[in-house]
């Protein structure tokens, strides 16, 4: 089978397909991609066989067989020859020390970048904006492995110029750096990027306790990485925005949902605060009882689909996040397709059984 | 060490009993009457208290330690010799099975020992109820002797405290996984100290196809209910919960028996078991893992996310490395019960049977020289703990013989 190439999709507008068109066209594409991975990845083929998916026909995105995202922490899954792998991305995640390993060949890595560019131009326009990263340059020091945080910073840095770090090596606010940066770009739009928890802990909190005001009225803040730790500290989206507005003047705050296992096809918040699926990706909500796809408004386990993963079988992944589809094709922002919200990580279950007598955590 | 040296007071929480330094550690005979009196009083307290009756596991414990059962165990206790407890027994109780600390304490008492039980910090309500009930009885003047010999304590994982207690112990009962056991065994103990260690175990079921087909509708429901309790009460994480089901019978007949059993079982599980989203994902991950790692896995039947069944073409010798949870089964059909010889190793604990002559099977396993399987019980009894557990006669092992030939 020939290596799939979906680059013609880059010519389409990212939010231009309604439900019926997308389900059909993306369904056909993902069926094709499923066949590719079945012929290329022995583990994947075995999984489809044992779960009874080999014979099932794929008519729409909901029919595409999915695998758990956690599997990338347990086994090496790749759909190209090992010598074609030119970059391995890793992520920590929540289940201990195990790390996801995502194998990229050149084409897949390039396509990630192109899709991300397409999506980001919707947010930032075509020009590269001066960029302020709310993190420490130390994150990138260890370049031999691309941690999710480092990869995120590197990936998004492509959309900025005069890339400047707002935090120093110790994750403390670097005022001389920030002030010089603001001075260089007075009156211009500024691209501010960071991870939600890092922004809250090391930026918002520091600005508050040190009583600092920053003139970033033209800032566009993009942030992602999850709300878990903020919700644990009872910080809501509203509070997050309020503190940022008070301390920096930033009005445009855009959250994104994405994961290292599907880098590129991220889900971006619109001006109405909703996360949207673009034509390059989709969301299905699965019922924990039997994994059937759930209706609009029902909360279940989030499955994410993406056309990007060709070098590894990660085009349909069952995440460990809960969420629900809020609506389809009818967001006042005008973007077509599904929009959704995240309701946090799957709650941990109490472990019952005989093991773990002399527990470490108590 | 001088005999009967006092244990020092340590920085730990005493849940039941007076300070450690006041403990009396002189052993007594197994099944001494004051211990039986105490445990049967505890049984009565628990069976009549409204708050403990909400918890089936407390009720099961209370039922086990009622007087008539203990008297029966005392009669059955096979001792041609004069026996006495070993002295102080230290118990490290499991974190995830709320009432096991009470069982292990009772075993230690019945063997004639003084006992320190380390309760886990899991904070189960059952533990609170049991500790309160025991404390009330300890305050009763008639149980002053028992109270002096027994403590329930709680402390975070702390090797210094565990090491001090281990140094004083004549016996240790270590519940828990292989890693915990290896860790605790590395601590110095007195030269005569014995350890009873409950390691990670693997359990399985043997169902006779013809017997399933011959059973009445009521009988199948009883079978399904028993199997449900064996598996789902502890999310299939108990050591004695089955993971492999060996079906005994010819292939076509067995397929009919499976259909009959699972269709009833599926309805029961859907009604009685709530699967949490994380368990559903765990199970699905395990199915994918099985696909990749177990080439003998032929196909699967999924009853929603409540029951996953993987059919095995052949029995992999390392099948015990592939245990799932929350209702994940591997199934294998055979007419040859000697197949156990190929898989059973010391990790195997309980065989749950239906439609099988257990006595004959036990003899067969002895003849085969199996190195594992310590329990052969009917379906529905997998989780019933007793004074014989994991292949040990706990009362015998926790006491010593004074030989007088």
Walk me through this protein's architecture.
The complex is a heterodimer of chains A (362) and B (405). By secondary structure, chain A is α/β, with parallel strands linked by helices. Chain A folds into 2 domains: 7-112 and 270-345, Rossmann fold (3-Layer(aba) Sandwich); 127-257, 3-Layer(aba) Sandwich (Rossmann fold), CATH 3.40.50. Chain A contains 9 helices and 14 strands. In chain A, α1 crosses α2 and α7 (196-209) packs across α9. Chain A is globular, with a radius of gyration of 21 Å. Chain A starts with 18 loop residues before the first helix and ends in a 17-residue tail after the last strand. Chain B is of the alpha/beta class. Chain B folds into 2 domains: 13-200 and 390-402, 3-Layer(aba) Sandwich (Aldehyde Dehydrogenase, Chain A, domain 1); 202-378, Aldehyde Dehydrogenase, Chain A, domain 2. A 7-stranded mixed beta sheet of chain B has the order 10-11-12-9-8-13-14, with helices on both faces. In chain B, α4 links the parallel β3 (88-92) and β4 (114-119). The radius of gyration of chain B is 23 Å and the shape is elongated. The model of chain B has no long low-confidence stretch (mean pLDDT 95). Classes of the chains: A alpha/beta (362), B alpha/beta (405).
């Amino acid at each position: 089978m020939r290596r799939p190439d979906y680059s013609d999709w880059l010519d389409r507008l990212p939010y231009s397909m309604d439900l019926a068109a997308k389900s059909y066209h993306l369904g056909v594409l993902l069926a094709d991609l499923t066949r590719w991975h079945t012929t290329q990845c022995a583990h994947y083929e075995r999984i489809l066989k044992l779960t009874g998916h080999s014979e099932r026909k794929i008519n729409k995105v909901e029919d595409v067989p999915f695998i758990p995202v956690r599997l990338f922490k347990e086994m090496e899954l790749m759909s190209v020859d090992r010598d074609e792998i030119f970059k391995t991305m890793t992520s920590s995640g929540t289940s201990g020390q195990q790390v996801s390993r995502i194998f990229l060949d050149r084409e897949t890595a390039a396509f990630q970048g192109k899709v991300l560019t397409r999506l980001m131009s919707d947010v930032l326009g075509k020009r590269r904006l001066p960029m302020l990263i709310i993190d420490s340059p130390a994150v990138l020091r260890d370049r031999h492995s691309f941690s999710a945080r480092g990869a995120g910073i590197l990936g998004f840095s492509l959309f900025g110029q005069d890339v400047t770090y707002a935090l120093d090596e110790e994750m403390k606010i670097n005022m001389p750096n920030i002030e010089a940066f603001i001075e260089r770009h007075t009156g211009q739009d500024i691209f501010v990027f960071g991870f939600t928890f890092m922004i809250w802990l090391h930026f918002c909190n520091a600005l508050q306790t040190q009583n600092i005001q920053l003139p970033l009225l033209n800032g566009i803040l993009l942030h992602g990485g999850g709300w878990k730790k903020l919700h644990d500290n009872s910080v809501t989206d509203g509070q997050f925005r309020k503190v940022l507005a008070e301390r920096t003047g930033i009005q445009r705050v855009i959250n994104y949902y994405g994961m290292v296992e599907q880098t590129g096809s991220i889900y971006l918040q619109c001006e109405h605060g909703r996360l949207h699926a673009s034509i390059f990706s989709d969301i299905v909500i699965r019922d924990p009882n039997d994994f059937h796809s759930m209706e609009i408004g029902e909360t279940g386990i989030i499955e994410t689909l993406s056309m990007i993963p060709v070098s590894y079988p990660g085009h349909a992944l069952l995440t460990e996040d809960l969420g629900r589809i809020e609506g389809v094709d009818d967001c006042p922002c005008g973007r077509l397709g599904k929009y959704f919200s995240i309701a946090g990580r799957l709650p941990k279950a109490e472990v019952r059984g005989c093991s773990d007598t002399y527990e470490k955590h108590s | 060490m001088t005999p009967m040296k006092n244990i020092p007071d340590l920085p730990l929480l005493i849940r039941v009993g007076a300070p450690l330094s006041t403990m009396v550690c002189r052993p007594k005979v197994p099944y001494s009457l004051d211990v039986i009196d105490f445990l049967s009083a505890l049984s009565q307290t628990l069976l009549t208290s409204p708050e403990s009756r909400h918890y089936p596991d407390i009720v099961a414990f209370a039922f086990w330690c009622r007087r008539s059962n203990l008297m029966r165990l005392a009669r059955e206790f096979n001792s041609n010799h004069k026996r006495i407890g070993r002295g102080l027994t230290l118990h490290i109780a499991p974190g995830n099975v709320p009432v096991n600390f009470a069982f292990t304490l009772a075993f230690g008492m019945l063997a004639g020992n003084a006992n320190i039980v380390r309760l886990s910090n899991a904070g189960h309500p059952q533990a609170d109820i049991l500790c309160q009930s025991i404390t009330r009885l300890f305050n009763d003047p008639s149980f002053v002797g028992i109270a002096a010999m027994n403590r329930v304590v709680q402390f975070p994982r702390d090797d210094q405290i565990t090491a001090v207690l281990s140094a004083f112990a004549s016996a240790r009962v270590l519940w828990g996984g292989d890693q915990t056991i290896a860790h605790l065994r590395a601590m110095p103990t007195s030269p005569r100290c014995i350890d009873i260690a409950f390691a990670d175990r693997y359990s399985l079921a043997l169902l006779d196809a013809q017997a399933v087909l011959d059973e009445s509708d009521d009988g199948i429901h009883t079978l399904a209910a028993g199997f449900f309790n064996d598996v789902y009460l502890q999310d299939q994480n108990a050591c004695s919960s089955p993971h492999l089901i060996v079906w005994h019978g010819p292939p076509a007949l067995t397929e009919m028996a499976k259909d009959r059993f699972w269709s009833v079982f599926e309805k029961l599980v859907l009604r009685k078991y709530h699967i949490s989203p994380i368990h559903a994902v765990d199970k699905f991950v395990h199915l994918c893992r099985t696909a990749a790692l177990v080439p003998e896995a032929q196909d699967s039947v999924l009853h929603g996310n409540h029951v996953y069944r993987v059919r095995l073409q052949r029995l992999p010798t390392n099948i015990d490395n592939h245990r799932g949870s929350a209702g994940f089964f591997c199934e294998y059909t055979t007419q040859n019960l000697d197949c156990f010889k190929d898989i059973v190793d010391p990790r195997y604990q309980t065989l749950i049977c239906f439609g099988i002559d257990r006595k004959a099977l036990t003899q067969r396993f002895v003849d085969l020289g199996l190195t594992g399987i310590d329990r052969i019980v009917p379906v529905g009894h997998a989780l019933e703990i007793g004074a014989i557990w994991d292949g040990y006669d706990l009362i015998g092992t926790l006491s010593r013989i004074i030989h007088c030939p």
